[in-house]
Amino acid sequence: MSAIPTVLFAAVVLVGCTAAPDTTPSPSAPAATTPAPETSEPTTPGAQPAATCDTILTAETYDKFEADDIEPIEPPIVVNQLAQQMVEAGGVACTWGAPAAEGLTVVRLSDADWAVWESALADAGFVETNDPVPGAYTGPVDPGMGESPIVVVDGETLTYADNPTVASWLVPTS
Protein backbone atom coordinates (compact mmCIF):
# COMPACT_ATOMS: atom_id res chain seq x y z
CA MET A 1 0.00 0.00 0.00
CA SER A 2 2.81 2.44 0.81
CA ALA A 3 4.23 2.07 -2.73
CA ILE A 4 0.97 3.20 -4.38
CA PRO A 5 1.42 6.95 -3.70
CA THR A 6 4.98 6.80 -5.04
CA VAL A 7 3.90 4.94 -8.19
CA LEU A 8 1.00 7.36 -8.75
CA PHE A 9 3.30 10.38 -8.28
CA ALA A 10 5.83 8.94 -10.76
CA ALA A 11 3.03 8.21 -13.25
CA VAL A 12 1.68 11.78 -12.97
CA VAL A 13 5.16 13.23 -13.46
CA LEU A 14 5.79 11.05 -16.51
CA VAL A 15 2.41 11.86 -18.03
CA GLY A 16 3.04 15.55 -17.40
CA CYS A 17 6.34 15.34 -19.25
CA THR A 18 5.04 13.42 -22.23
CA ALA A 19 1.46 14.63 -22.65
CA ALA A 20 0.68 16.94 -25.54
CA PRO A 21 0.07 20.53 -24.44
CA ASP A 22 -3.51 21.72 -24.24
CA THR A 23 -3.93 24.23 -27.05
CA THR A 24 -7.39 25.47 -26.09
CA PRO A 25 -7.30 28.94 -24.56
CA SER A 26 -8.12 29.24 -20.91
CA PRO A 27 -11.14 31.47 -20.29
CA SER A 28 -9.47 33.07 -17.29
CA ALA A 29 -6.23 33.97 -19.11
CA PRO A 30 -6.55 37.01 -21.42
CA ALA A 31 -4.97 36.65 -24.84
CA ALA A 32 -2.00 38.87 -25.56
CA THR A 33 -2.93 41.56 -28.07
CA THR A 34 0.42 43.27 -28.45
CA PRO A 35 3.91 41.82 -28.77
CA ALA A 36 6.18 42.11 -25.78
CA PRO A 37 8.37 45.23 -25.91
CA GLU A 38 11.96 44.79 -26.93
CA THR A 39 14.40 45.19 -24.10
CA SER A 40 18.06 46.00 -24.03
CA GLU A 41 18.76 43.43 -21.33
CA PRO A 42 22.12 41.70 -21.47
CA THR A 43 22.18 38.52 -23.51
CA THR A 44 25.06 36.98 -21.64
CA PRO A 45 25.43 36.63 -17.89
CA GLY A 46 27.22 39.64 -16.44
CA ALA A 47 26.91 41.72 -19.63
CA GLN A 48 25.77 45.31 -19.25
CA PRO A 49 22.78 46.69 -21.15
CA ALA A 50 23.64 49.01 -24.01
CA ALA A 51 24.32 52.57 -22.89
CA THR A 52 21.80 55.28 -23.70
CA CYS A 53 21.61 58.97 -22.87
CA ASP A 54 19.09 57.99 -20.18
CA THR A 55 21.43 55.51 -18.46
CA ILE A 56 25.00 56.86 -18.68
CA LEU A 57 24.67 59.16 -15.67
CA THR A 58 23.41 58.45 -12.16
CA ALA A 59 19.74 58.88 -11.27
CA GLU A 60 20.69 61.71 -8.91
CA THR A 61 22.32 63.57 -11.81
CA TYR A 62 19.19 63.30 -13.95
CA ASP A 63 17.11 64.54 -10.98
CA LYS A 64 19.44 67.54 -10.62
CA PHE A 65 19.26 68.21 -14.36
CA GLU A 66 15.47 68.23 -14.18
CA ALA A 67 15.46 70.56 -11.16
CA ASP A 68 17.87 72.93 -12.98
CA ASP A 69 15.96 72.80 -16.32
CA ILE A 70 18.86 71.05 -18.04
CA GLU A 71 17.59 69.04 -21.00
CA PRO A 72 19.01 66.81 -23.73
CA ILE A 73 20.27 68.66 -26.81
CA GLU A 74 19.70 67.00 -30.16
CA PRO A 75 21.77 66.36 -32.09
CA PRO A 76 24.59 65.94 -29.56
CA ILE A 77 27.45 68.43 -29.88
CA VAL A 78 30.78 66.60 -30.17
CA VAL A 79 33.73 68.86 -30.90
CA ASN A 80 36.68 67.05 -29.29
CA GLN A 81 38.60 64.98 -31.84
CA LEU A 82 38.99 61.94 -29.54
CA ALA A 83 35.26 62.06 -28.69
CA GLN A 84 34.46 62.20 -32.42
CA GLN A 85 36.63 59.10 -32.97
CA MET A 86 34.71 57.32 -30.20
CA VAL A 87 31.39 58.20 -31.89
CA GLU A 88 32.71 56.97 -35.26
CA ALA A 89 33.66 53.68 -33.54
CA GLY A 90 30.05 53.22 -32.37
CA GLY A 91 30.02 55.24 -29.16
CA VAL A 92 26.83 56.81 -27.82
CA ALA A 93 27.02 60.62 -27.73
CA CYS A 94 24.85 62.73 -25.44
CA THR A 95 24.69 66.46 -24.78
CA TRP A 96 22.65 68.23 -22.10
CA GLY A 97 22.22 71.95 -21.56
CA ALA A 98 20.05 74.76 -20.27
CA PRO A 99 18.86 77.77 -22.25
CA ALA A 100 21.69 80.29 -22.76
CA ALA A 101 24.26 77.94 -21.22
CA GLU A 102 27.06 75.79 -22.59
CA GLY A 103 26.22 72.14 -23.12
CA LEU A 104 27.77 69.15 -21.41
CA THR A 105 28.84 66.28 -23.69
CA VAL A 106 29.43 62.65 -22.74
CA VAL A 107 30.40 59.84 -25.15
CA ARG A 108 30.40 56.19 -24.05
CA LEU A 109 32.07 53.47 -26.11
CA SER A 110 31.51 49.88 -25.00
CA ASP A 111 33.57 46.83 -25.98
CA ALA A 112 36.58 49.00 -26.73
CA ASP A 113 39.83 47.37 -27.84
CA TRP A 114 42.17 48.75 -25.20
CA ALA A 115 45.32 48.40 -27.34
CA VAL A 116 43.79 50.70 -29.97
CA TRP A 117 42.32 53.21 -27.55
CA GLU A 118 45.37 53.39 -25.28
CA SER A 119 47.33 54.67 -28.29
CA ALA A 120 44.50 57.03 -29.31
CA LEU A 121 44.39 58.51 -25.79
CA ALA A 122 48.16 59.07 -25.79
CA ASP A 123 48.08 60.56 -29.31
CA ALA A 124 45.35 63.00 -28.19
CA GLY A 125 47.42 64.08 -25.18
CA PHE A 126 45.42 62.26 -22.49
CA VAL A 127 47.45 61.13 -19.48
CA GLU A 128 46.41 58.62 -16.83
CA THR A 129 45.81 60.58 -13.61
CA ASN A 130 43.18 58.50 -11.78
CA ASP A 131 41.78 61.89 -10.76
CA PRO A 132 38.97 62.54 -9.92
CA VAL A 133 38.10 58.82 -10.17
CA PRO A 134 40.07 55.60 -10.72
CA GLY A 135 40.66 54.92 -14.41
CA ALA A 136 40.59 58.64 -15.32
CA TYR A 137 42.73 60.01 -18.12
CA THR A 138 42.97 63.79 -18.25
CA GLY A 139 43.28 65.54 -21.58
CA PRO A 140 44.89 68.84 -22.52
CA VAL A 141 43.03 72.00 -21.52
CA ASP A 142 40.40 72.98 -24.07
CA PRO A 143 41.17 76.64 -24.86
CA GLY A 144 37.51 77.44 -25.56
CA MET A 145 36.22 75.99 -22.28
CA GLY A 146 39.27 76.46 -20.08
CA GLU A 147 38.90 72.90 -18.69
CA SER A 148 40.48 69.55 -19.39
CA PRO A 149 38.26 66.84 -20.84
CA ILE A 150 38.44 63.45 -19.20
CA VAL A 151 38.14 59.83 -20.31
CA VAL A 152 37.26 57.20 -17.73
CA VAL A 153 38.34 53.65 -18.55
CA ASP A 154 36.13 51.06 -16.84
CA GLY A 155 36.85 47.53 -18.07
CA GLU A 156 36.22 47.52 -21.82
CA THR A 157 34.27 50.79 -21.69
CA LEU A 158 35.60 54.27 -22.31
CA THR A 159 33.55 57.30 -21.32
CA TYR A 160 34.55 60.77 -22.50
CA ALA A 161 33.29 63.89 -20.72
CA ASP A 162 34.19 67.44 -21.62
CA ASN A 163 34.25 68.37 -17.93
CA PRO A 164 36.14 66.40 -15.23
CA THR A 165 33.33 66.98 -12.69
CA VAL A 166 31.16 64.62 -14.73
CA ALA A 167 33.39 61.65 -13.82
CA SER A 168 31.64 61.34 -10.46
CA TRP A 169 28.22 61.39 -12.20
CA LEU A 170 28.92 58.37 -14.43
CA VAL A 171 27.23 55.02 -13.85
CA PRO A 172 29.97 52.38 -13.51
CA THR A 173 30.01 49.73 -16.23
CA SER A 174 31.74 46.88 -14.44
Describe this structure in words.
With 174 residues, the protein is α+β, with helices and mostly antiparallel strands. Helix content is 25%, strand content 17%. It contains four helices and seven strands, in the order ααβαββαββββ. The protein has a seven-stranded antiparallel beta sheet with strand order 1-2-3-7-6-5-4, with helices on one face. A hairpin with a 6-residue loop joins strand 2 and strand 3. The protein is globular and about 40 Å long. Residues 1-46 have low confidence and may be disordered.
The separation of the N and C termini measures 58 Å
Largest sheet: 7 strands, antiparallel
Spatial shape: globular
Low-confidence stretches: 1-46
Alpha carbon gyration radius: 26 Å
Which percent range describes the beta-strand content?
15-25%
Strand order of the largest sheet: 1-2-3-7-6-5-4
Helix content: 10-25%
> How do the helices and strands follow one another from N- to C-terminus?
HHEHEEHEEEE
Structural class: alpha+beta
Number of strands: 7
Average pLDDT: 78
Number of helices: 4
Summarize the topology:
Elements: H1 3-18, H2 59-67, E1 71-72, H3 81-88, E2 92-97, E3 104-109, H4 114-123, E4 127-128, E5 136-138, E6 150-154, E7 157-161
Antiparallel strand pairs: 1-2, 2-3, 3-7, 4-5, 5-6, 6-7
Descriptive key words:
174 residues; globular; 4 helices
In short:
The protein has 174 residues and is of the alpha+beta class.
